[in-house]
From TrEMBL:
Cofactor annotation: Mg(2+)
Alphabetized InterPro entries for the sequence: HAD-like_hydrolase, HAD-like_sf, HAD-SF_hydro_IA, HAD_sf
GO BP of this protein: small molecule metabolic process
Entry keyword set: Hydrolase, Magnesium, Metal-binding
Entry protein name: HAD family hydrolase
UniProt organism field: Agrobacterium tumefaciens
Matching Pfam families: Hydrolase
């Protein structure tokens, strides 16, 4: 861990990103390969088309995994009845959830903040099918509130999503610390609203670009909580 926030006093609120901050997802997992196989599409082609719909999904323009896979198939020039696609998704959806794992220090870190009486929130650029991910992980029970971008139809680094979660936890942005892996320019957006920022360095492709917008760099959620308590 580099640095600490002791000189700033204890924050009134802490906001966390979700993916690659509190939990991780294997984007090369069996769900995508199995879906491609069952639909008769090359796996690489399927994954590229699926990912091309990420922004639309995270903005709430695509309402479900079924719709996203159906649109993915159409992008791959494969016409499939939507009910058939729904059956394929239902048969394989557990493979999607099994590829998502909570980091081993996330739960204990959130519990420490709860014990300290600090309101916490989750703000994530995420699709409708990520709502179940949040519930299955149990993380939604450990924070004061959460907001996913599809629910409010705006994404980090836009100010509105930060303002929304801050209002939900009852703490002004200037009194919050934002913790994230730095994707989607999230630290830049948080800083623009007056938040202090902590970058969790996961050695991802966007990590270096996020460093200039971090007040503190750490290697884990536990280290981030150490820095603010």
């Amino acid at each position: 861990m580099i640095g600490h926030f002791n000189s700033l006093g204890q924050p009134r609120g802490v906001i966390f990103d979700l993916f690659f901050t509190l939990l991780k997802e294997d984007f090369t997992g069996p769900f995508y390969r199995t879906m491609a196989r069952d639909l008769g599409i090359d796996a690489g082609t399927f994954l590229a088309a699926f990912r091309s719909l990420s922004r639309s999904s995270m903005l709430g323009e695509i309402s479900s995994m079924e719709e996203r896979v159906w649109k993915t198939a159409r992008l791959c020039e494969l016409e499939r009845d939507r009910d058939v696609v729904g059956e394929v998704v239902a048969r394989n959806i557990e493979l999607f959830y099994s590829a998502i794992e909570v980091y081993n220090d996330s739960v204990s870190a959130l519990l420490r903040l709860r014990k300290a009486g600090i309101p916490t929130g989750i703000a994530s650029n995420a699709s409708a099918h990520s709502k179940a991910v949040l519930g299955r992980s149990g993380l939604d029970e450990l924070v004061t509130a959460s907001v996913l971008s599809y629910e409010v139809r705006c994404m980090k680094p836009e100010p509105a999503i930060y303002e929304h979660i801050c209002e939900m936890i009852g703490v002004a942005p200037a009194n919050c610390i934002f913790v994230g892996d730095g994707g989607d320019r999230e630290l830049e957006g948080a800083r623009a609203l007056g938040m202090k920022t902590i970058l969790i360095d996961r050695d991802l492709s966007h990590t270096d670009a996020a460093r200039p917008f971090a007040d503190l760099c750490v290697r884990s959620v536990a280290e981030a909580v150490d820095a603010v308590l």
